[in-house]
Structure formats: C-alpha cells, structure tokens
Write a structure and sequence with these properties.
The complex is a heterodimer of chains A (105) and B (160).
Chain A lengths: L13 H11 L1 E5 H8 L3 H13 L3 E4 L10 E4 L1 H28 L1
Antiparallel strand pairs in A: 1-3, 2-3
Chain B lengths: L6 H19 L6 H20 L2 H22 L9 E3 L1 H4 L3 H25 L5 H31 L4
Helix pairs in contact in B: 2-3, 2-6, 5-6
The chains are: A alpha+beta (105), B mainly alpha (160).
C-alpha cells in the first residue's frame, strides 16, 4: 500500500511529532509514560493532546484498573494515516534535496 | 506541500520520529520474571521426574502447562512488558509468541538429551541434573532471545 506524502501542520511541531511517533508504534501509551519520555509537564502534555484530539488524531481512555489518574493515549486511524503521510512528506523533502548532489557524485 | 521546511529541518524531524520509535521498540520484552518462573517450573518437573512416579510426573507437567497457558497469552508476545504501554503487534512482530513457544520446545529436547547423556555418564540424578542445567540456560537465553527480537524489530520496520 503506497502512502501519499502530505505535510501535516498539526503534527509537524517537534513536541507533537514526538508524541504521535511514540503513539504510532503502540496500541496505547500511558499518559505518564509520554510525559516522562518527553520531559513535559502534565498541563503542557494535556495541551498538546488536546490539539491532536481536536484534529481527531488521538483519543484518551480511562481503563478500569483500580488506580486513579490512569489515562491511556491512543492514536486514531485518522492520526495514523496522517502521521504516515507526514513522514512520507518529510522523506520526500530529504530525498528531493539530496538527489542533485548524489547525481553530481 | 513542503511548507517552507528545508532539508535540515526534515532530517531533524525524521530523527525525532526515529528516536520516539526506538523508545517504544526498547519496551519489547517478555518480563524477566517469566523466564525465572519457567526455570523454576522446569526444576520442579525435573524433581518430579527424578523422584516421583508417573502420576506425580504427569501432575507436575499438567500443572506447569496449565499455569503457563494462563499467562502465556499476554506475556509471551513481548508487547506489554510494563503497564505503561502496549506495543503494536505488527511492530513487535507476529512471530514473537511462536518464537518463545518454539524455544520452550527446544528446551524440552535439550532436557531429554541432557538427561540421556547424564544417565550414560553415570550421574546419580540425571533428570534433575539436566533440568537444572536447562533451567539455567532458560534464565540466560530467554532475555537474549528477546534482545534479538528487539534488534530485528529495529532493522525490519520502517520509520512510519
């Protein structure tokens, strides 16, 4: 299945890109794990997740585990498709700017 | 379409993607306690095989199999080492549970061969000796097996 390159303004900022890339390899990731991995505060991460959620890219679930404040963050199918397209767009930018020099070499 | 993103910025962004992905791949693992539990069960079966009758041996084997199957479904896939995330099946590798279960079959064969060799060598407790030796191997080889799975996941899967 070919992925159409499409630059995504919502995903591209570094913090959101890190979040989406983290979620892309997982079924779900605990809120605390994402926060610690990226070195963000709870409020900063919530803000970024809210932006991604508004775009329909992530969802947050509260599983019944008996522990308070446990939140699972998941990438939606729409978010996964957007991420793949965004990565393809980045790869295209890199490839297109490298091809002239590689031709010279 | 490029939205003013130049080559260096795109490379940096792809590096961010790679690092995030590797952080998740590093989580692919079977909990260490699983290998220790299997090793303990192995010694238990070896003990039963050495000193018990056929009923004791059968009971020990069935108990081990029942206990293993109750946890195997969520442990041997290597997708949820901790409660912090669950790695996608296509990222962790569809073959991982099969690999782990196949390794147990290899350990069974090694235990039988080891017991026969120990018996031929005149060991007093060949089954127990072989079981303990294979149990040590399980504790050592299990984590190494999962390291190989993680390495394969890193080299196999694309950035997206």
């Amino acid at each position: 299945m070919t992925v159409q390159p499409k630059f995504d303004e919502v995903i591209h900022p570094s913090t959101r890109l890190s979040i989406v890339a983290l979620l892309a390899s997982a079924d779900w990731v605990d809120f605390a794990y994402v926060r610690d991995q990226l070195g963000l505060s709870d409020s900063a991460l919530s803000k970024q997740l809210s932006t991604l959620g508004d775009a329909g890219y992530v969802t947050q679930e509260r599983p019944v585990t008996g522990r308070l404040r446990r939140v699972h963050v998941c990438l939606t199918e729409k978010g996964r498709a957007a991420f793949r397209s965004h990565v393809a767009a980045l790869q295209l930018i890199v490839a297109s700017s490298e091809s002239p020099s590689s031709t010279k070499a | 379409m490029t939205h003013h993103v130049n080559h260096d910025e795109a490379v940096d962004a792809l590096e961010v993607v790679r690092r995030s992905r590797e952080a998740v791949l590093a989580e692919i693992n079977v909990p260490v306690w699983y290998w220790w539990a299997v090793a303990a069960g192995w010694i238990g079966i070896g003990f039963a095989g050495q000193f018990g009758n056929a009923w004791v041996m059968s009971g020990a084997t069935l108990s081990f199999g029942a206990a293993h199957s109750s946890i195997a479904n969520w442990v041997v896939g290597g997708r949820q080492r901790t409660s912090q995330l669950r790695v996608r099946r296509d990222v962790a590798g569809h073959f991982t549970p099969i690999l782990v279960l196949d390794s147990l079959c290899v350990f069974v064969m090694l235990t039988i061969v080891g017991a026969l060799v120990a018996h031929a060598d005149g060991a007093t407790y060949p089954v127990l000796v072989s079981s303990v030796a294979v149990a040590v191997l399980i504790v050592i080889a299990g984590p190494l097996l999962m390291r190989g799975v993680r390495h394969r996941a890193k080299t196999r899967t694309p950035a997206s």
